[in-house]
Amino acid sequence: MLVIIVGGGRTGSELASMLIGQGHQVKVIDDRPIMVERLKKELGEDQVVLGDVSSPSTLEAAGIAKANVLAAVTAEDEANLVATTLARFEFNVPRTIARVNNPDNAWMFTPEMGVDVALNQADILARLVAEEMSLGDMMTLLKLRKGQFSVVEEKVHPTATAVGKTLGELKLPDQCVIVAVLRKGDLIIPRGELVLQQADEVLAIVHATQVADLAAVLNAQRPH
């Protein structure tokens, strides 16, 4: 894919490095000459464009006509919103992502303004803290379908009711699928007859409303 990243700060540069490492084409736009020179040394001459991030001509110079994704990650909400609006309505970029710096501005980052995905940092951090507080050791690895489903990892508690039971015997939430079990460094394909052991690491895909139910199955203690 061709991904245009608007903003070459820490977020933009790290995102660019990761995507380049995965084999994607990347163009980073920034309006600071010193930042652009540094990025050219880190990413390569052809990966960086100097110019006004809100200017259609700058976006065109970066190749937006062929872009699959535009990610606007500057520290200025106005610049991010203008860039995604132009990308969607002027250049028909299929996917737009924008960083929201000030939570008070989050209401503006909508599909009607050209934003497919708004990354509200304060909201994301608050949700992660809430998840860690309510779900103990369960770790959310990935969000799917705009947060409707999560890929999670949970270690089976030594006194959990799940210990010694087969997967087929577990009363899992109806919108939950066990996709793998990690045991002492080995990856085990989950089948109905697999017996769970304490400290097994369970990877699952589960609906957002049932994450706590899955955690209860793997953490709920057996009666003494």
Q: What value does the average pLDDT take?
A: 87
Overall shape: it is elongated
CATH class of the largest domain: Alpha Beta
Count all strands and give the number: 11
Radius of gyration equals: 22 Å
Helix content: 25-40%
Number of domains: 2
Class derived from helix and strand content: alpha/beta
Low-confidence stretches: none
Strand order of the biggest β-sheet: 3-2-1-4-5-6
Note the gap between the termini.
56 Å
Q: How many DSSP H or I helices? A: 6
Largest sheet report: 6 strands, parallel
- Beta-strand content estimate: 25-35%
- CATH homologous superfamily assignment of the largest domain: NAD(P)-binding Rossmann-like Domain
Q: Give the CATH architecture of the largest domain.
A: 3-Layer(aba) Sandwich
Q: What is the string of helix and strand elements?
A: EHEHEHEHEEHEEEEEH
CATH names the topology of the largest domain as Rossmann fold
Task: Set out the fold topology.
Elements: E1 2-6, H1 10-21, E2 25-30, H2 33-43, E3 48-50, H3 56-61, E4 69-72, H4 77-89, E5 95-100, E6 117-120, H5 121-135, E7 139-144, E8 149-155, E9 176-183, E10 186-188, E11 201-207, H6 211-219
Parallel strand pairs: 1-2, 1-4, 2-3, 4-5, 5-6
Antiparallel strand pairs: 7-8, 8-11, 9-10, 9-11
